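Hi R.,

Here's the chain you asked about this morning:
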Amino acid sequence: MAVENQIAPRRAPHLAAMFQKAYAQAVMIQGIDEQIDQMIEQREKLELEIHEIQTQINGEFERMLTAAKEARLKLRAQIAQAPARNVEVEIAPNLKFAGSIPMARVAS
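And the predicted structure, written out as C-alpha cells:
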C-alpha cells in the first residue's frame, strides 16, 4: 500500500496538467463556435442585402422595358394615323424600294 501512495502523488501533477489542457481546448472550441455563429449571421445579412439589390435591379429593368414598350406602342399608333404617301427610297446603290409608306407626324 505504501507503494501505491507514492505513485499517486507523482501522477497528480500530470493529471492536473492534462485536465488543464483539455479545459483550455474546450474553451477554445467554444470560442471558435461563437466565431462560426457570427460568421453565419454575417453571411445571412450579406445574402439578404444581395437579394434586396437584385430586387431593385429587376425593378429597374421592368421600368425600362415598360417605358420602351409604351414608346414603341405610341410610335406604332402615330405611324398608323399618318397619311400614306407614295415614295421611293434608295436603300443602297442599285437597290430601291418603291411603295406606299405612311408618313409619321413629328411631335413638336
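Confidence is low (pLDDT under 50) at residues 104-108.

Let me know if you need anything else.
M.
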